[in-house]
Automatic annotation (TrEMBL):
Residues 39-59 are annotated as: Disordered. This is Sugar ABC transporter substrate-binding protein. Keywords: Signal. It is found in: Cell envelope. It comes from Brevibacterium ammoniilyticum. Residues 39-50 have a biased composition (Polar residues). Gene3D superfamilies: 3.40.50.2300. Residues 62-322 form the Periplasmic binding protein domain. Signal peptide: none annotated. The keyword Signal applies. PANTHER family: D-XYLOSE-BINDING PERIPLASMIC PROTEIN. Pfam families: Peripla_BP_4.
Amino acid sequence: MRTSHPRGSSSATGPNRLHRRLTVAGAAVAISALALTGCGNQKGQGNDETGSGSGSDGDVTIALLLPESKTTRYESLDKPNFEKYVAEANPDAKVEYRNANQDASQQQQQFEAAVTEGVDVIVLDPVDASAVASSLAKAEAKQIPVVSYDRFFEGADYYTSFDNKKIGNLQGQALLDGLKAKGVDPKSGPVWMVNGDPKDPNAADFKAGAEETLRSAGVDIAADHDTLDWNPDDARQWVEGQLQGGGQKPIAIYAANDGTAGGVLAATTKAKQDPVVTGQDAEVDGLQNILKGEQYATIYKSIPPQAEFAAKAATALAGGEEPKAATTYKDTPTDFVEAKVVTKDTIKDIVGDQIKASDICKGIEKKLCQDAGIE
């Protein structure tokens, strides 16, 4: 795991901000307790259970703002797992969910609506991490803590994700392993990189890690492209254009995730080219492409632990407590989740957690799953 940035005495904006919020929250709790002692519980005569949140009715409300639905994980894994772990941490807590459909302006409106509604905590996976500053200022003014989920942004009270540069390293090594498996010298020809959305800070980390690993092996990265909105069609169109350019064809193409890898494969198949292609996220389409021998590898990221970290942090912050974290990243309390490379030989090892064998094997030759040991 990458070494995190230690808290420095001269750059403790995040921790100090959290301390101010928790101080105010504690003061509010104390004042409320005194008021109730003096006047009695006027809201619900005879009912002493006031709940564990900071809202007027004692309930806790957590806003979960996710960026898009093209990547299947958000709707099928992140949302339900987050809701599950919030319910376990605080059965009285309510999760208000909104998806921005890859629209930064829409997400800003959703964020500011949550602030206006007076939610207790906001958990944000930003469409554009560089555009959240003004919204954060409004949350700060209302003393609403904000959790940075999956994509880091400055000013959050807590952050959970995967070590994204390390994931890039894993992707780069997988590409080298794929070339070795084909008996191809990684220095024998050009490699192209189809990166993620330039607005996504994770994409920059993936790219940096992959480039580091590939360049250290002497690979010639001859061309690269940033895929707008992680759109597979954008990836496909760029690769098609490159293949029509008449230059030397690539021995491998790095794709930042399985969606863009699908776009890459559509272009290379049409052009009757067979470079090594890798991806990320272990989506069903990507796993099927691996079983069919079209894609060499993907990166498996277990979503439930990440959702659990975020849920525990959010409920702690809602209760005026500082979340427990294993490390820090850019002065922000942080928990990272480990990831691993998946190839045809190891797909069977990830079946049963968040991926079902029936989903992987649906619509493809039965023998492909049998040969891979997928039951």
